[in-house]
Specification:
The protein is an alpha+beta fold. It has a single domain, classed as von Willebrand factor, type A domain (Rossmann fold). Helix content is 33%, strand content 22%. The strands form two sheets. It has a two-stranded antiparallel ribbon with strand order 1-2. A hairpin with a 3-residue loop joins strand 1 and strand 2. It is globular.
Length: 130
């Protein structure tokens, strides 16, 4: 992620209302909880400043499924994942359809923002409405 990407995320976080609980995770091959859910926005922003890509294989779908499993343990009526990614995925065992099945089963909303490094590296947008 670039400095501009992180600044964009900080601006989005500044809009979070008091009744929202948030956390921060990063992933490449494995999901890493950087800031636990229910942490303060200040903690989240402090950790955002430390985030950087390490250039490992990105298992986007696998780690999105892990994120869904993590968030379903929270006792909130509505649950959402905001996925900030370059859209690249090297998954071999999990696919787009697996994530759709999980969000349907667990009633989790996923909002995704793609920070592609170039037009040629961007992936076609897959949209699910339902």
């Amino acid at each position: 992620m670039t400095i501009n990407d992180i600044e964009h995320i900080k601006k989005l976080l500044a809009k979070i209302e008091a009744h929202h609980i948030v956390g921060l995770a990063s992933f490449d091959k494995n999901l890493q909880i950087e800031v636990p859910i229910e942490a303060s926005t200040e903690q989240l922003i402090a950790e955002l400043n430390k985030l950087q890509a390490v250039g490992k294989t990105t298992e986007l779908y696998r780690n999105t499924l892990k994120s869904i499993a993590t968030i379903t343990r929270i006792g909130a009526d509505k649950k959402a994942i905001y996925l900030f990614s370059d859209g690249q995925t090297e998954d071999k065992a999990y696919f787009h359809q697996d994530v759709i099945r999980a969000v349907r089963n667990f009633l989790v909303i996923i909002n995704s923002i793609d920070y592609s490094q170039s037009v040629s590296l961007s992936v076609p947008c897959k949209q699910y409405v339902g």
